[in-house]
Amino acid sequence: MSEDWAAVAKAINExxxxxxxxxxxxxxxxxxxxAIVREIxxxxxxxxxxxxxxxxxxVALGLHPQHLLAVLHGRIPPALGQPRENMEDAVSAxxxxxxxxxxxxxxxxxxxTELLRRDGKSRG
Length: 124
Hints:
Layout: H1 5-19, H2 23-30, H3 34-42, H4 51-60, H5 67-72, H6 90-123
């Protein structure tokens, strides 16, 4: 599976904005250098980061430790309190990807159903 560092940057930036933090505060709370936080947040350097770096950022942001790893790999992030997933398990990774796709399809079907319902009312 491909890695989506832009999605990681977006997730971090949204959460930092919710919390009203500055980049420096995230760096201090996560014990990740401000330069690395800047690179990830601004999506300026796209290179492999350690799982521990993403976990430290997620925990500092009050997210599940594997939240940013899930975002990176296009999976639905686990909620706080959920058990840790074995991210190396190929079956778990595939099931998570299928789950995300099914969620997307379900949302699209709900939108189509609503459009058809409205269209039926306007013709009736």
